[in-house]
Fold this protein.
Amino acid sequence: MKKAIVIFLSLTMLLSASACNRNTESSENTSSEIVQTVEPIQLVNKMTETELSRVDKHELTLLDVPEEPTTEAEPAQTEHKVSVEFHTPSIDEWRENIESYRDHMTDEEYETAMENIRIAEEKGENGGSPYARIILVDGYRVSYAVPYADPNYDGGLIAFTTSTMDENGEPKTEELSFESFEEYLDWIRKMDAEYGYSDEMIEQDVLYVQVANEALKTGDYEVLPEGTINTEDPSLYLWYEEETGDFRDLWEYDRNAVEAIKDSIDEISIYDEELDKEFVVHVTLPPDYDKDKTYPVFFLTDGIWRFGNHTELRKVIEDGEAAPVILVSIWYSYNVNDAEGNIRYFDLVVNRDKMLDFITDNLMPYLCENYHIDCATSTLYGHSDGGVFAHNALFKSDLYENQPFGNYIIGSPALWGLYNYNDYYNISSDDVENDYGYFDRNEQLNKSLFLCAGSLEDPDYADNYNGHDTTLEGVAKLKERMESHGADLTYKLYDSHHYQFIPEMLIEFLKETYPKQ
């Protein structure tokens, strides 16, 4: 399986201030009434030039009928962007590499290599010349070796060693050589066919090797600083994009209900350079929306499902059972199909800090520039992997200049997901049970927390706990920690499995947190 890469570049940050308003407070004095005005919360927009140039607020397009999805690869581009991250091996890496291939070397070859290492070490040199460690074409990682990535390649015989697993799961190495580049490309076609790729995908894979090889040969490529490419993001590998098209049909909502209020819904396409992803954000305005008035935001992650709750929540407001709020939900652009949840897991759990940067420093400030928002009473909701994200967002909120939310909903946080994958994704879960050191930095929690789960949900993911706390055990421990710190906590278990309680919970939260004025 080929895995994906995220590239993020350090660009000049554009700073602009946007105000999120707070309510005016009043108090009484024995001699006269004193009105105390609280300054609005100011959010600083930290979007880069690229991000600002790509943001677009427009009418709702979710209801547009999509073209029939296709499994064909996108047409080949006439021009391609090649990016390369070079790596200069250390002496230790050189030595480890030689030792790993000891069984494939003669004694003379081994002794010569070790002597070269000794000489280089004495001279204080590195373990060799820089080589192209990771190559991207049009944002996708090239999965096969590129001949001209080797600084010693002279355009002749193509030879390298592959390392795979045999039928028993044991490491297997194989020496390969090809008389011509075309012969090598035919071998790639053969390997891709064994992986089960379609003909179109195979030719796209081959094309990327051709484009990368030519760029390395001519020097027509962008150099990325060493260590900037994250090799674990699954969304940017060619294999993940086998199915291209428009995936509006995967969204879950009542079409008739959305049709009835579509004029009150704004749709925003917004790109984050750090995550290197395009998102779609839906903003549903309350009945009788007044652009000069200030409203809290009820912000929902997992918009592919939660946008469907906008109509129900807005109806509660329309019926006078809750005060007006602006409903916001976020998901990936319509051309992303995350049926397996790999991208969602990566961004809400593995890359949760980058996602928090995006929402805190880009998206919410942008929304505050376009709507009058009361940040102090706004709410951030997350469930399951989103609950892991909401937990991270709450207990790292004090580390940010921007304070877009005063309330947080942590629903059924799948904290066990951190433990199950921390070795593979290099996730540190040690500080999760310490709530990221929040109470080491602060005496008390200055936000409001609603913690909830389904009382029947532990068996739903029994195969995933692997000896760690179940969902409900993790929730119970979090509840105990919050109670010990005297946090502003509301806690509720619903008679439900993992996600069935969400619509009921959101309506209940809306009524209780934003009662009719």
